[in-house]
Design brief:
With 226 residues, this protein is α+β, with helices and mostly antiparallel strands. The chain has 2 domains: 2-78, Glutaredoxin (3-Layer(aba) Sandwich); 90-218, Glutathione S-transferase Yfyf (Class Pi), Chain A, domain 2 (Up-down Bundle), CATH 1.20.1050. It contains 9 helices and 4 strands, in the order βαβββαααααααα. The protein has helices at residues 18-29, 68-78, 90-120, 126-137, 141-144, 147-154, 157-165, 178-192, 202-219, and strands at 2-7, 34-39, 57-60, 63-66. Strands 2-1-3-4 form a 4-stranded mixed sheet, with helices on one face. The protein binds glutathione. Residues 7, 17, 19, 41, 53-56, 67-69, 132 line the site of glutathione.
């Protein structure tokens, strides 16, 4: 059985990493059984076998793969049924989609979730999370976190996503696949931390709810910040 190492909060069932959600969706998409290994930010010893310090990581027999896009490509190579990316150029194309959805979504969402991640994290992670992120931003978490500014930044993202979703139900066409999960992971970052800043945008909200329903029908209700 595939082992999935994924980020968790103080509650091991509270999963909020966008990249880990991509992989969880990919495994459900392929109908592969997997065992979750909830991993706190500072549980580095749990993933030391992968030779790096970030999740998601999967272990499939003797094979270890980390990075959500690399895991998509691996799953397609080993389990070609229900492709995530599809043809030979698709890994390169997925990088472009990843970069585009990151550029329209990450900055705004970050300003909305940063303090929520801190609050949801295990207390043993607090000092680590604060010091690594404050070093990255060269600013305090409290100064970077700004939900109103985040919401304003995201207003530019919804029409871009809606333009596609007005003409087709999923980014990958009639059925969801890899491109949908790349974007959905970012949405789950917000949703699992208790916010849904796209709710006023019908095509985007409908797309999100369709995917969430597919997931929850198979795996049960997602744990969220109250
Ligand atoms: N490019 C990687 C990014 C993975 C990543 O940044 N994971 C975060 C969780 S969202 C992490 O493990 N952070 C550990 C840390 O900050 O120490 C992917 O797509 O999987």
């Amino acid at each position: 059985m595939i082992e999935l190492y994924e980020l968790c909060g103080a509650n091991p069932a509270h999963l909020f990493s966008p990249f880990c959600w991509r992989v969880r969706m990919a495994l459900v998409h392929k109908g592969l059984s997997f065992r979750s290994n909830p991993t706190c930010f500072t549980d580095k010893e749990l993933i030391a076998f992968s030779g790096q310090g970030k999740v998601p990581v999967i272990r499939d027999g003797d094979t270890v793969v980390y990075d959500s896009l690399a895991i998509f490509a691996y799953l397609d190579s080993q389990y070609p049924e229900q492709p995530l990316l599809g043809d030979a150029v698709a890994s390169a194309r997925a990088k472009a989609i990843d970069a585009l959805c990151t550029s329209v979504l990450r900055g705004g969402l970050l300003k909305m979730v940063l303090l929520r991640v801190l609050q949801a994290s295990d207390p043993k992670d607090h000092a680590y999370f604060r010091s690594t992120r404050e070093a990255f931003f060269s600013d305090t978490l409290e100064n970077v976190d700004n939900p109103e500014q985040g919401q304003a930044l995201l207003e530019a993202a919804w029409p871009v996503l809606a333009a596609v979703l007005k003409t087709q139900p999923y980014f990958d066409g009639d059925e969801p696949a890899g491109a949908d999960y790349l974007v959905f992971g970012y949405f789950m970052w917000a949703y699992t931390l208790g916010i849904a800043p796209w709710q006023d945008n019908a095509p985007v909200n409908d797309w999100f709810n369709r995917l969430l329903n597919i997931y929850e029908a198979q795996r049960g209700t997602v744990v969220r910040t109250a």
